[in-house]
Hints:
Elements: E1 6-12, E2 30-31, E3 34-35, H1 36-46, E4 52-57, H2 62-73, E5 80-84, H3 89-98, E6 104-111, H4 119-132, E7 134-140, E8 145-149, E9 152-157, E10 163-165, E11 169-172, H5 173-186, H6 193-199, E12 205-208, H7 219-230
Parallel strand pairs: 1-4, 1-6, 4-5, 7-12
Antiparallel strand pairs: 2-3, 6-11, 7-10, 7-11, 8-9
Helix pairs in contact: 3-5, 5-6
Amino acid sequence: xxxxxxxxxxxxxxxxxxxxxxxxxxxxxxxxxxxxxxxxxxxxxxxxxxxxxxxxxxxxxxxxxxxxxxxxxxxxxxxxxxxxxxxxxxxxxxxxxxxxxxxxxxxxxxxxxxxxxxxxxxxxxxxxxxxxxxxxxxxxxxxxxxxxxxxxxxxxxxxxxxxxxxxxxxxxxxxxxxxxxxxxxxxxxxxxxxxxxxxxxxxxxxxxxxxxxxxxxxxxxxxxxxxxxxxxxxx
Length: 235
């Protein structure tokens, strides 16, 4: 099904990406022969529900990032834009929102280092967001969660009311844009888009999905990602 209105994907890849060590930023590291960023972008370029794509990148990487996209996706029929990110993630998203077409209906905000997004998940989140205006993918927790105090366990958190959330987080364009504008006026800071929207009173729906939608932040994640790719594990 083709999108009847404009839906924009914002891919956040402006972090330094050096937590894993080495000279190559993690969003550009090879995952079984393909850069992580390119694996992440693939489903968004392929989905008929996504009208255009905005990638945030470190300022010094703008040309490199554009060239990487051209190398893997040209000829591209879907418009895309690579822009410099800000000092913090919130700055990068705010800047990208200013670049969204004015007729945008939904915004998909996704981490550049979550390469296991699927076309099915994009469709599911799109359908929910059209009704609910805000939705995030989530998974149940498998391990017992403890609250600590100093060097000791303090209490066990009831797990059946907790979920872990992933991206893409999807919002009605006007909702997320207005929430970000209010946050900047109020000096409110959040590293999670849904938390920012919640702060201003909007309800955010969660959608249970695979917990293999991992964010690659360290070598353990990289090992898991390689296992997923090399063994063709279905997410």
